[in-house]
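Progress narrative, work stream C.
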Amino acid sequence: MSENVDFPPEKSLTILIPGLNGSGLELGQLPRFLENNGHKVLIPEIDGYLYGSTPKKFETWISQIDSLLDRQFEHYEYIHIGGISMGATLALAVASQRTDLANLILMSPVLKYDGWSVPWYRPLLDFFYLLGVRNWKYVEREPYGVKNAELRRRIGEKFKTSEVSDMGAATITARHLHEAIGLMTFADVHLHSVNNRMLIIQSVEDDTCSVWSAKEILKYANSELRRIIWLGNSFHIVTIDNEREIVLNEVLRFLDRADAVNFSLDQQYNDRNPKKLKSREME
C-alpha cells in the first residue's frame, strides 16, 4: 500500500450534484466517504432544480453552478465536478462551457430517457406540455432505479409517508421534466466542447436510460482520458444499489489519481481506505 499524502489545504474541491428534483440522499455514502478519505466535497444548492423549490429554466441551473464555481475558485486551485443521473448531465453541460474545471465524474448520465422501465407514453407527456397541459406530475414507480429488492421495498414504504427518499422525489413536475429535456439536448449538442478527464459509471441494466447515453459521451467528448466502469448488478441509482462499494472505490481512486497528477506528486495513494465489497445475490 502506498504512503498517505496530505495535500495542502484549500487545494482541491469536488462538487457533486444530486439528481433532478433530488435532495442529495441519492448520492448515498459517497460524499462522506470522500470526505473521510481527504477530499473536500460540496453538494450545491440549486434553486429550481432540487426538491422543494419551484422549477426554473435549465439555463438558470447552469448559471447558478457557474456562479458557485467562480466563488469557489477564489479558495481552491482545482475543482472537480460530477453528479448522479440528471446531476451528471448538468455537470456535463457546465463543463462544456468552461475551461477551468479539472475532472468530470458522471454516474448514470442521462442524455435520453430510454431505459427499459420508462413507460411507453413518456414522449406523449412532452407533447401535452407543449400543447399547454402542464398541471401534472410524473409519479415514480418500481423499480425506483434500484435493483436491490430490500432497498426497493424500503423506498416504497418511505413514499407512503414522505415525498422524498434515497432515490429522489416521489413525483417530478411537468416543468422539471420539460427543462430536463432541454438540458439533455444542450449537453448532447455541446459534447465536442468537453475535454476534461472523465470517469463514467454506468449500469448495463439501467432502467431510466440505456447505455446509449454513456456511449454517446464516449464517442463525442474530446477528453483525452475517458475511463468507464460498466456495472452488471445495478439499475439507475448506482450510488445506493448492489454495487455501491464499487462506485465509491472507483470515484475515490479516480480523484486520488487526478489530484496526484494535478499536484505533481510521485505517490498515487489510490488504495488508502477502500470500501469492502459486500456479496449480494444476483436477481
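Work stream C, second folded protein:
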Amino acid sequence: MFEVRGYKRRNSIERLANTLFMPIISAFLLLICDPINAQENHHITHEDSLAMENVIVERYYISDSTDYTGNNDNILPKGSITYRIFIDMKPGYSLQVVYGVPHHELFLKTTTTFFNDKICFAETGFNIDAKKLHIVNVALDSWITMGAASRLHTGILRSEDVDSFSFITNRASLSKSDGLTKGVLPDFRIFKLDLGFFNNDSTASCFSTTDAAWAALGGVQGPTPENRVLIAQLTTNGKLTFELNVQLGTPSGGFIQFVAKNPEALEMQFDGLSSN
C-alpha cells in the first residue's frame, strides 16, 4: 500500500493523493508534509523501524473523596482516574498524525463514561485557558491534543516536571507538579473528527473512527530530550482501553506509520498502540 519509490516530480498531486495514503484521509495527510519530497524520501531504514520507543499511559491524577464536588450536572464520578497518553519516540523523530482508517480503527473506550468538564468545554488541549485550571474540575477534563495541555503549555510527565510553580492550586498533589511546561505549540489540525464527544457529552464512552485524524502540521517533537508527545487526557472511573495508529516524520524528511495491529506493506506494528 505504501510502496512508492521511484515517483517522478511530474506525477500530479491527485495521483499522489491516491497512492500515498488511504484515499479516505489522503487529502488531509498531504498537508502534513511535502508530498513530493516525502514520496521520494520514503524508504524505511532499520533505525526508522525503531523510532517508536513506547506508548506511556500516565496516571496523572487519582481522585479521592474530596474531589466529588461541583454543580449537580458537573460532578466528577467517584473513583475517577485521569490518564495521559504519550507517544515516546527516538530523538530526531516527530509525531505528525494520529489516525483511524479502514482496517486500522482508532478508538478510546471506557467501561463507564469519560468525564467532560462543563466549565471549560475543552475539546482539545489547545482550548484550555491556563488561568482556569484551578477552578473545580477543569484540570481533569478529557480531550485530545498534539502536545498542548493548555493555550500556553506543553504537557509532560509529572515525573519530569521539576519546576516549583503550578497553575493547579486546588489539588495538593497537582499543586506540586502539574505536568505543564512552556513550549512551542504546533499548528494543530483535525480531519473529519466530531469533537463534540469531548465537549458536553455526559454519556461519552467510546471515541472511534476509521475515517478521521488529528495532526500537527509539520510534526511535533517532545519538549524534553526523551521526545515524548502528549496526545490525549482522559478521565474515567471505568477501565480504559485504546487502539491508536500514528505517523512519524523521520530525520531524513520521510515518514513511517506504526499501527496497533495487522500491518500492511511498509506499515510497522507496535504492540504498545493497543491496550485491551
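Confidence is low (pLDDT under 50) at residues 1-28, 30-38. No further action is required on this item.
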